[in-house]
Amino acid sequence: MNLILRLTVVLVLCLIAVAIPSLPAQAQCGAPFLELSPEYGLPGTDVTVYGHDFAAGVLVDIKYDGNLIATGRASSSGVFTIMITIPEGCQGHYQVLAKGDAEADTYFTVKPGLMVSPDNGPPGTTVTVEGKGFASNEAGIELLYYLDGSYETIGSNITANAKGSWETSFQVPASDRGRHKLDAQGAINRLYEVEDAIFEVTAGISLDKSAGFVADTITMTGSRFATYEKGVRILFDGQAVVTDIRADSKGEWEASFLVPEIPAGEYSVTAEGEQTKRQDVGELSFQIEPDIALSPTAGHVGTNLTVTGHGFTPSEDVDIMYDGGTVETAKTNDQGSFETSFPAPDSQYGEHQVAAGYAGQNHANAIFTMESRPPGTPTLTSPSSGGRVGIIGKATPKFEWSAVSDDSGVHYRLQIATSDDFVGSSLVASVTGLTETSYTLNATEALPQGTYYWIVQAVDGAQNESPWTTPRPFRVGLLPLWAFIVVIVAIVVLIGALIRALLGRRALYDDRW
Question: In whole angstroms, what is the distance from residue 507 CA to residue 504 CA?
Answer without folding.
Answer: 5
